[in-house]
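A quick aside before the break. I want you to see a complete sequence-to-structure record at least once, exactly as it would be stored in a machine-readable document. Don't worry about memorizing anything.
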Amino acid sequence: MNVACYMRQDPITVLGTAPLSKAREVMEENALGILLVVSDEGELKGFITRGALKQVQDWELSVEKACFEARFAVSKDDTLEKAALILLENQLVLLPVVDGKHLVGIITQGDVLFALARGLGIGLKGIRFVAKVARLDDLYGIMRVLHDSNVHLVSFMRGNKEGAYQDIILRVQEVADKERLRAKLEEALRQG
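That is the input. The structure line, written in tokens, reads:
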């Protein structure tokens, strides 16, 4: 999955040449805490925050003179994983999405969380199993049981690690007999 699949196109912005009063007006009208700043050509110039506006003395000063540099951005082709890491490591609520220097969208923490939930099949009808595995071969046994049982695998995710064991979280559909499948999976892990 890449950023283009989940980004929000045409974010609300303000021109760098606009007065700070315009930035305040746009932020208030749209209930924004952060507003991206662009040039006349659509190039990302930075951002302004609601908190920074509290310090303003001269509302006619241009936005570009008071805005902060946008140190982080992603492209439409970057992975969601990259966007998530940048958001988490830098405690950001949103990331600009650029094509070269031109702003083409934003991706937020919420967008990444939605993509993750969708990718994991959260909300889909099905069953969730957690298996404790010690070796890579255990995964092959799990997959073999799912295949032989004609079960549809929705998602496969690594969970907590405790000592030598790794939790593997499976979301599956089309399970005729949940307890029988559980027994087959446990047997495959014991034999592994």
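Two observations worth writing down. The longest strand covers residues 152-162. Residues 121-191 form a domain with the Alpha-Beta Plaits fold (CATH 3.30.70.260). We'll return to this after the break.
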